[in-house]
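U., I forgot to send this yesterday:
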Amino acid sequence: MIDHQVRVRPSADRLPREEQLAWKLAAVATGTQEASELDPRAATTAVDRIIDNAAVAVAALRRRPVAVARAQALGHPTPSGASVFGVAAGTRVSPEWAAWANGTAVRELDFHDTYLAADYSHPGDNIPPLLAVAQHTGRTGADLLRGIIAAYEIHVALVKGICLHAHRIDHVAHLGAATACGIGAMLRLDTDVVHQAVQQAVHTTTATRQSRKGEISSWKAFAPAFAGKAAVEAVDRAMRGEGSPSPIYEGEDGFLAWMLDGPDASYTVSLPGPGEPRRAILDTYTKEHSAEYQAQAIIDLARTLREKTGPLAKVRSIILHTSHHTHHVIGSGSGDPQKYDPAAGRETLDHSVPYVFAVALEDGGWHHERSYAPERARRPATVELWRKISTVEDPEWTRRYHDPDPSRRAFGGRAVITFEDGTVVEDQLAVADAHPCGARPFDRSGYTAKFRTLTEGTVTPTAQDHFLRTADRLARLGTTDLADLFPAVDTDAVTTADARLPKGLF
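Result:
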């Protein structure tokens, strides 16, 4: 790996493009190996992510934000476009709108892959726009695989090197750059074209984190889809010869200087050198539970503690000792009263670790729909327990969260439950059971089981089998096979959801 120092530069320096971070990202993407030369484990993980994305997308098809995005996409039909989850086979829409609809479906349940380092990310958000462009341009499965590996490489590198959330910038700014790189690698574009597309994508997808603060709205699901759509459009413009704000990262009025650490900003971004294998996708991990990733280990911890606690009505207080990130983003350190509001929507509840821990402790598990039902959130005993739960930052958990060794990194915490009689029950868990270092790491069987569970009743067993076989031979798929990466669903339920929507412009 090569460590690249990135800092703000005055316009008078006329920073050569080869020294700009956007160029270096583009060069790594366009230098990605062909599918046959990729690390076999990385290629296998890319297939896992395609299966995972399809599972959570199908499970979300009847939810309102997904129906809205799908309806908007269907207003832009084109014969040579791309497929949309939940729509009859053969229906195609413009690729940027397919990226919008499918990206929203994948993100809606907060249930797919994650990577946490200096910043947050869901690298699987790169796949919907890549798949849309691949279909539209007649690419093969091998081309798509190359693009996915490149996008993950760039996304993980940026998340490791540049923290956005400290300045309340939403993490989709890194997603836009990664998606532009992935598309460029897949289409085998020249590095200078990808360089311009990256800069346009970063410029147009920088937004604040208010989408994940206070009363969290459905925009949380739309935000990465918007970044994917913007990246597709940025690549299109760059291919037509259009330039971009440059240098977008280092410029004195650019991203680092005004959105992040200011004129004295300096970051280190580590990227593979020429010929080095692209393995960053192996550092990412998926979710067993439909909730913010930092709540995954907390849910598993609650399942364990439930066997030790006895009657929860006698609990006096519960304190979760955890990292800075967990305390301030999804814990009581956020200062958001909505995190304790029984009338809050799903988007807020899945970012409330006190709520998640209370329900998991009561139920001994987690369900992507039942655990968020309004009647579940308003249950009096749950509300009483929920409001006894708080979080505190523990410096040791913060240190473990940022451990440079992925095998020692921890995203969990320690729960201390105090009862009315003074009895204390406590336990801790460093990583979720499904994490690569956890008690039951996900492998292909885990992804397959998750897919079958989430698509049951919507996708027939025969159609499930066909999809899984198609995904498994991703690197060998021809140009007409990519439509089979969209499981055939019972469209009646989807049509019913769409019919309930008010009309828009399209």
